[in-house]
């Protein structure tokens, strides 16, 4: 592990411990079961988006359409909920998976960056969302499903948050223990060398974007059932939050580095930070500024700035040892 990577990993662990302690000392009831439940409810939605996005990032690509996909999936779910909530969720996830596969198929055909391809998909999905909504907020009146998804389990969890945790575990096992998972890392680490060594790069990219689309759809579908409503306008910062969580969690922008466990850490850091600041009555603008500043610090420390700090620390330690030896 490089010095910069060690530094950013240490910072993530410090933040994961320091933020809850700091807010516990300054915010009344921050560590109450109700508030911890609220944190994991936020984790349930953002975690699925960040997890799917991080898989494409590990493969050296980037899916800009995840937030729009979540919006469309929520609308599809509410439209089809008359078929039953499970069937509606499955249909929405199937739509997300097909669109994700379409994104992957377009990459070699168009010979352009996934950023360009998925921004086109994002614009298309935004249009589809407004068409599905018809200028209205869609809703349904069966709150039994919402109550079931959000019922409290073990004090701080819900079925929705446990579904997200299960998805993290499944993707961690897939990336760690399957050949295709290793091909995904190879695709992001050094694609040309991966192709020459026989890695199934094409299939890896298809699977990555399918996972990204499916998880984005699942996130949008579950949140729409939870709220019993869906609209064509999702929070404009959703994509930024998902990308920030993945990057803060240690997923390299260049690909080949990252893990579901580290992404979960990044998501928890952001949800704890936003929850605590919200309890302190911070505005949405202030939340965005703090999130952006944290992301910038992590990116800088993960690059040359972090390496320079570690080199300076190493040189300082060597100088001290020489002085001690000389004095002795």
From TrEMBL:
Membrane-protein topology: Multi-pass membrane protein
Segments passing through the bilayer: 36-55, 87-107, 114-133, 153-175, 201-227, 239-256, 288-305
Gene Ontology MF terms: transmembrane transporter activity
Pfam family, one: BPD_transp_2
Originating organism: Acidisoma cellulosilyticum
PANTHER family: ABC TRANSPORTER PERMEASE PROTEIN YPHD-RELATED-RELATED
Record localization: Cell membrane
Keyword annotations: Cell membrane, Membrane, Transmembrane, Transmembrane helix
The keyword Signal is annotated on this UniProt entry: no
Chief location category: membrane
GO cellular component terms listed in the entry, alphabetical order: plasma membrane
Protein's name according to its UniProt entry: ABC transporter permease
Signal peptide: none
